[in-house]
Structure formats: structure tokens, C-alpha cells
Structure to design on (228 residues):
């Protein structure tokens, strides 16, 4: 809590046992666990420390994006054993369509665990000729854009009381070229991997992960009260 982030040694240990790769397909080196196992694992970590549980949840559920990416790109991003991703779905960015990809600028708040991520992603509204590209239902087309952490500026904004150790700072990119293959829509795209984990609606699985954090914190609170 003093450093407002998870200790690097703890992050390495959790990555080493695959906690951040629970939702990554086996074909690219992930664990591809069932949803119940994911919730139970997150709950156990959150029982020990709420911020650690929250960061595991963010890293694990961010791994779902790998099932939507072309396999070669998923392997590039998620293949390394210590690979951790994170990000923000909310479309705070703007992505101007260009040949081969997008020019992306934006600032995303609440980037939990951003300081220990190798890749970050941010929701961005796609622009064609300066205007939002619209989906058939009339809503703006919003896509998750993936960036290597070296291309991202992290702003020190996380000074809070709850989940202080989660390091949920703002992060920024400016006019960054993102290849088409490093973007996904969690609304209109379909997963490229066939496993049952990827048949669960993405935001439903995210909600299960958040519930796991809450269950772990609540369990620890009850245990502490009993001890007192």
C-alpha cells in the first residue's frame, strides 16, 4: 500500500504459476481453465489481499482478448511465460482508420496493474474521415487497441483508500500506430478459439471475476471479525 502497487517479486511469483494466464487458450500456452476454477483462484488471492486479487482478476480476464486475436499475434503477446496484460474497455480513445491499422490517441483511467503489464489495451471509437464509424444498430464502433507497454505513458493518479495497492493509474497514448491485427471488438467479433470458456459472454465472465474478488475480501473480513 505504501508503494501503491504490487511488489515485483509477488507479480513474478503469481505469473509463474499461471494466475494471469487462466483465460488464455492452451494453443498459445495458456491454462484455459473453466470459469469456476478462475473464480475460486481469484477468491483465494483476494482473501489474502484485496489489491492482489483485483490485479489477478484484471490480468486473467484481459487474457480473454487472446481468443479473439489471430493466433500468431496472440502468441506474440501472450506466449511469453511472464506475459501480463491489462487495460480499460471504456472507449476513452479515438482510433483513426489508416492503411494497415489505426492511429490511436487517448487517456484511460483505472488502469489496474498497468505498471507490471507487458501490454495494455484501451477501448477506442473508430473514426472514418473524422466521424465515428457506426455499427448497423447505429452505435459507434468501439474496438480494444493493444499497445506494448513501452509505447504507453503512465500518469501517477492512483492515490486512494480502497485497493490502494492495485496501482490503477491513468495511461496515455498519442498518435500511436496500431496494426489491424492488434485490435478486437468484444461486441461484434467472434472468438477464434472454440473452447467452452469462450462461449461465455465476455462481460459475464468479467462479472464472475469481480464477484470472486468480492467473495475473497468478504470471507477474510468475516474471518478477521471471528478472530477479534
Amino acid at each position: 500500500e505504501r508503494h501503491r502497487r504490487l511488489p515485483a517479486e509477488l507479480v513474478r511469483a503469481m505469473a509463474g504459476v499461471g494466475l494471469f494466464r487462466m483465460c488464455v487458450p492452451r494453443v498459445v500456452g495458456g491454462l484455459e481453465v473453466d470459469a469456476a476454477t478462475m473464480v475460486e483462484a481469484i477468491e483465494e488471492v483476494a482473501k489474502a489481499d484485496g489489491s492482489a486479487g483485483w490485479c489477478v482478476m484484471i490480468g486473467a480476464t484481459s487474457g480473454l482478448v487472446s481468443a479473439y486475436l489471430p493466433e500468431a499475434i496472440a502468441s506474440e503477446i501472450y506466449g511469453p511465460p511472464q506475459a501480463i496484460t491489462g487495460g480499460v474497455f471504456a472507449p476513452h480513445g479515438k482510433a483513426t482508420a489508416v492503411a494497415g491499422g489505426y492511429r490511436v490517441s487517448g487517456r484511460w483511467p483505472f488502469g489496474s496493474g498497468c505498471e507490471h503489464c507487458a501490454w495494455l489495451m484501451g477501448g477506442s471509437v473508430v473514426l472514418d474521415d473524422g466521424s465515428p464509424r457506426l455499427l448497423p444498430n447505429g452505435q459507434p464502433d468501439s474496438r480494444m487497441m493493444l499497445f506494448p507497454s513501452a509505447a504507453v505513458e503512465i500518469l501517477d493518479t492512483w492515490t486512494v483508500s480502497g485497493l490502494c495497492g492495485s496501482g490503477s493509474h491513468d495511461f496515455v497514448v498519442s498518435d500511436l500506430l496500431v496494426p489491424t491485427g492488434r485490435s478486437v471488438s468484444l461486441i461484434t467479433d467472434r472468438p477464434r478459439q472454440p473452447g467452452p470458456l469462450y462461449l461465455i459472454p465476455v462481460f459475464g465472465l468479467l462479472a464472475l471475476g469481480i464477484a470472486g474478488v468480492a467473495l475473497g475480501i468478504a470471507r477474510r473480513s468475516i474471518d478477521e471479525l471471528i478472530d477479534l
The radius of gyration is 17 Å. The longest strand covers residues 85-98. Residues 58 and 86 are 6 Å apart (CA to CA). Strands lie at 85-98, 101-111, 119-128, 131-132, 142-148, 153-155, 169-179, 183-184.
